[in-house]
Design brief:
This protein has about 425 residues and is an alpha/beta fold. It contains 13 helices and 16 strands. The strands form 4 sheets. A 7-stranded mixed sheet has the order 4-12-11-10-7-5-6, sandwiched between helices. A 4-stranded mixed sheet has the order 1-2-3-15. The longest helix has 19 residues, at about 320-340. Bound molecules: pyridoxal-5'-phosphate.
Length: about 425
């Protein structure tokens, strides 16, 4: 089925470490090579068609190449695609974001989520004059040297060589108020900020409880530290706007990415004005300012136009009730199919299957998720690719887009049924 992919991937291995540029894009035996994408489908170089649940690292909520975005981007391309100057599409996107994200009193753009979280942490340290950053066990905020800690189970070893001052990053268990507060309390004098995803994405598609986020926020604010929310996955995923206002939270800095770029590179740093002003080079001396705001391609007119077109479409069409219904249906039917063997986590249009083992009965944090049978999950996803033309990046959560329909989810459930039957034989 994948003869041409195999050849091209072999060539790719000659040029690229491990054949890839993003580590998670490799999967066994070798990844298929994509030629084009439209709507819910990826087409590979051997002309196999896959119903895609990876959806560009979960960034494509409207599906692949929707015409509403394509038309506006094409128009922009006709007018040039890289100015390196101030441009109006940026102003339009910010005006749209500010109307719906209360914390976005001031905004800065970068070209990846990684950069956005890197700056967010620097800003928090500048504003508070403190050093320590608390993140979540299993929290993923990109590959910054700072936040590359406690990403993978068992969270105790360094994630990489080449990292320095790792003692300045500490880690707390998701959804465990008592333990988290105890750990935060032990460093409160020097705590610059906490950084948390309201739904743990890479760590297992696990929503935080409102009680947990509220408790951390309250502690942080009481101790003159900042509360950072990483909404790079969750921003505009469940509703038109961020998730946090539904939980009555008051973050100081919010990072966005993925969906708000409409499939073009983006990272967004949103924050309260008095905090963001530390980045104002005209206002603060060198020793006080937070020197953020670089990037050759930051606020490039293509990402800005594509992001604005995507948010405009999301506002107009209100697709959220449709895709969350599909997500609820997927979780319910997959659970029925697998029975006690699995726990399906997620929220609305995001869902993930965990094959339980070692007595795991609920999944509230990344440790619970890591104790599940990750190998079996890879096998399930690989079989869906090979036998059913259904693509989840093996081991990762699935994202439903506006291009998916109930029949796609039914096909997924049927394919899963077959997988469980084959498995029993
Ligand atoms: C919650 C979260 N933060 C940050 C990032 C990093 O974003 P990027 O891959 O655009 O650098 C990701 C990427 O998956 C993410 O899921």
């Amino acid at each position: 089925m994948t003869r041409r992919s195999s050849k091209i991937f072999a060539r790719s291995q000659k040029f690229h470490v491990g054949g890839v540029s993003h580590n998670i894009r490799f999967f066994e035996p070798y990844p298929f090579v994509v030629k084009s994408a439209k709507g819910k489908n990826l087409i590979d170089v051997d002309n196999n068609k896959f119903v895609d649940y990876w959806m560009g690292h979960w960034s494509l909520i409207l599906g692949h190449a929707p015409s509403s975005v394509k038309n506006r981007v094409q128009k922009q391309v006709n007018n040039g695609w890289m100015f390196g100057t101030v441009n109006n599409p940026t102003v339009e996107l910010s005006s749209t974001i500010q109307k719906t994200v209360p914390a976005a009193e001031k905004i800065r753009y970068v070209t990846s989520g990684t950069e956005a979280t890197m700056y967010a942490v620097r800003l928090a340290r500048s504003v508070t004059g403190k050093k320590i950053v608390a993140k979540i066990d299993g929290g993923w905020h990109g590959y910054t040297s700072e936040l590359l800690k406690t990403v993978n189970w068992p969270f105790s070893k360094s994630e990489s060589s080449g990292l320095v001052n790792e003692e300045n990053i500490i880690s707390i268990p998701y959804n465990d108020v008592e333990k988290s507060i105890e750990i935060l309390n032990s460093v409160k004098e020097d705590l610059a900020c906490t950084i948390i995803e309201p739904v743990l994405g890479g760590g297992g598609c696990i929503p935080a409880t409102q009680e947990y986020l509220k408790a951390v926020e309250e502690f942080v604010h009481k101790n003159n530290s900042l509360f950072l929310l990483d909404e790079i996955v969750t921003g505009f995923r469940f509703r038109y706007g961020c998730l946090y206002p539904t939980m009555k939270l008051d973050p100081d800095i919010v990072t966005l990415g993925k969906i708000v770029g409409g499939g073009f590179p983006i990272g967004v740093l949103c924050g309260k004005e008095e905090i963001m002003e530390y980045a104002n080079t005209g206002k603060y001396a060198k020793e006080e300012r937070s020197y953020i705001g670089g990037g050759t391609f930051s606020a490039n007119p293509i990402s800005m136009t594509s992001g604005h077109a995507t948010l405009t479409e999301l506002k107009k069409k209100s697709i959220y009730s449709k895709i969350s219904k599909l997500g609820n249906y997927a979780r319910r039917e997959l659970k029925k199919t697998f029975g006690d063997k699995v726990i399906i986590t997620g929220k609305d249009s995001l869902f993930m299957t965990h094959f339980v083992k070692d007595g795991v009965t609920q999944i509230n944090n990344a440790s619970d998720a890591a104790k599940c049978d990750v190998e079996l999950l890879h096998r399930y996803h690989t079989e869906l690719i090979a036998k059913d033309g259904i693509f989840f990046l093996p081991g990762k959560l699935g994202a439903i887009s506006n291009a998916h329909s109930i029949s796609d989810i039914k096909n997924l459930v049927n394919a899963t049924q077959r997988f469980t039957e084959d498995f029993h034989h």
